[in-house]
Amino acid sequence: MSVESREARQPWILLSPALTAIILLLFVPLGFIVVYSFWLRTATGADQAGFFLDNWQEALTDSFYRDILLNTLKIAGITTIVCALMGYPAAYFIARSRGNKAILLLLLMLPFWISYIIRTMSWINILGVSGALNSVLIGVGIIDEPIQMLYNETTVILGLVHFLLPFMILNVFVSLDGIDETLEDAANSLGATRWQAFTEVTLPLSLPGLAAGGLLCFVLGAGTYITPLVLGGPTDAMFANLVFEAIITQLNWPLGSALSLMLLAVLGALVLIYNRYLGMAQLMKGLG
Amino acid sequence: MSSVILTDIEKHFGDFTAVYKTSLEIPDGSFVTLLGPSGCGKTTTLRMVAGLLDPSKGEIRIKDRRVNDVPIHKRNLGLVFQNYALFPHKTIAENVAFGLKYRGVAKEDARKRVQDALELVQLPSVGDRYPKQLSGGQQQRIALARAIVIEPDVLLLDEPLSALDANLREDMRVELKRIQERIGVTTIFVTHDQSEALAMSDRIVVMSAGRVEQVGPPEEVYNTPASEFVANFLGASNIMDATVLGREGDDLMLDVDVFGRVAVPGRKAADVASEGPAKMVLRAEKLLLTNRDEPADGTVAVDGTVEAVDYQGQAVRYFVRAGDRQLQAINMIDEHPFDEGAPVSLRLRPRDCAALPAT
User: Fold this and answer.
1) Which of A37, A89, A202, B240 gives the lowest tally of CB atoms within 10 Å of its CB?
2) Which of A186, A192, A196 sits opposite B85 (nearest CB)?
3) Could you give the C-alpha distances from A205 to A170, A187, B128, in angstroms and in order?
4) CA dihedral A152, A153, A157, A158 (to 10 degrees)
């Protein structure tokens, strides 16, 4: 075997364990889901194999699903914007701090050591009827009766921001950290105020990080079902809750498959648009 | 008239004193170099003039205006950094035009001035490109164009040549000096490279450990160092213990270690008392090695032995043993350099020597 062909094969040899895992654990199950989505659940509760478009017709035409999909995108959108507004200053602070950068990043990572579900449920102890906030308000005498603060859209967004903010901060941080600080000095020396130097130089150069963080927050936010399940009310279901409902509660795998593929298509389209204009490289940088 | 006047400025970072009681006057249109090893306070001083750092004490005046409380964007200074600091997301023309935008220069006028600046740095046709598409030397020229297009009161250069290759650095040195003379802008140049300082400056400010050691034209700083530090930092020097014997006319008579009696010109011994201990400074290139049988011809001569030879092409650097001292000599090569172990005669001319007070 020639040296050239050995060198050409080496990357594939190194990639093969990961590729095998991805194919077996992602693409094969995805194929099952696609097949399932064309099956039909009969009145007896058994699935009938075949090629039926009933599930797709229901998923695509029923306004119930469409409204929840739009609501899901809205909640994910608001969450992303809140994360951007809260995360950017934090990321800027970390990127510009001297010496204790590593500690600040460690603190940022700290929440990941605790299960996302536990973190979400912690809000019940804070905002619940007998939670910390109500106790304080009653203790101080501002209110007499506990207020029901949980189980609405606001708490869902709150929970999502809590979950997703570190992703935003990390992505923006990586982007800001790569910007040479003397650029701002140079802009200042040329007559720009600190704010002008920020908007003219630093902000545009950090946009790729902001976009990458935004994409991650949006996709992860739109795909979650735990946060609305724990912190949302009966009317605050997001699209992933419908999938959960169809598959786990109703055991209607064909419909659940069609719904999950719909969500995958919408979010996949977003990623493709992002990739077209900004490239995945920045996203990888943020994750690494 | 002086463009920049520093009066007793100091900068402390916690317990660390970066700059201590430094006063300096920089004449209009002159090229002044702050020279010193890293950590000597030269960059800190420059950053205080620029407004990137606030002095802990003292006053900074630029063009007869106290600027201590004037923020950097209102100081009208041109700043060039070691790493160029061009805006990567803007074209070359946008980079150069950046400062004009904040000065309210009309678009047409700005375009013309940008073009003039690009021509001045001999890169007239790169306006549409991005910084990444240019070489390091070209980027530094653009950084210079961006700094001078705003017609700054003072041009501040923070080690602008350090990131360039050796050959390019020497070209840029000449180029930078040409442009500075052409537009006549007062310039403060920070470097740790003595050859840059000697080649470009009207005046050199040698700094060490936060203090000014000496201020003067390159020739004066080089030939008449005011301290041992300056003597050692600019080129190689031999510094020898001496005792002052007294004055004879304009000369100061010294009894020098190894060499014996040397009559140092009075102007090169200004700070030395008429008696007591002193130091004599002799540049390595002023110590001449010859065969022992050559006539002394009015030089002071002692015998020595070559201990090490550092061949440098057109010149050679010797380490020579004379008595209990090792001395350095840098000589042009005449036919063959001396070999290690060769017996030689060391010759110095008294007028090449300078004297310093003993410390």
Assistant:
1) A89
2) A186
3) 16, 13, 19
4) -30
Q: Tell me how far apart the alpha carbons of residues A98 and A79 are, in angstroms, rounded to a whole number.
A: 30
Confidence bin at B313 (pLDDT 50/70/90): confident
In chain A, which residues have their Cβ closer than 8 Å to the Cβ of B103?
A: 191
User: Structure tokens of A167?
Assistant: 């992703």
Which residue's structure tokens are 């017709």?
A57
Q: Which two tokens stand for residue B261?
A: 């009696």
Minimal CA separation from B110 to chain A, in Å:
14
Please report the pLDDT score of residue B271 as a whole number: 80
> Of all residues in chain A, what percent carry a pLDDT higher than 70?
96
Tell which residue, B314, B309, B312, has the closest CA to residue B289: B309
Those residues of chain A that have pLDDT short of 50 are 286-288
Report the C-alpha gap between B89 and B105 in whole angstroms: 22
Beta bridge partners of B24: B6
CB contact at 8 A, A60 and A258: no
Rounded to the nearest angstrom, the minimum Cα separation between A201 and chain B is 7
Specify the pLDDT at position B166. Answer: 84
Tally of CB atoms within 10 A around B283: 22
Nearest C-alpha neighbor of A70 from the set A203, A269, A196, A237: A237
Q: Which amino acid appears at position A113 of this protein?
A: W
Q: What pLDDT, in 10s, does the model give residues B194-219?
A: 989 999 999 999 999 999 999 999 99
The full set of domains in chain B, from first to last, is 2-228 (3.40.50.300), 236-357 (2.40.50.100)
Question: Is A181's Cβ below 8 Å from some Cβ in B?
Answer: no
Domains of chain A: 58-287 (1.10.3720.10)
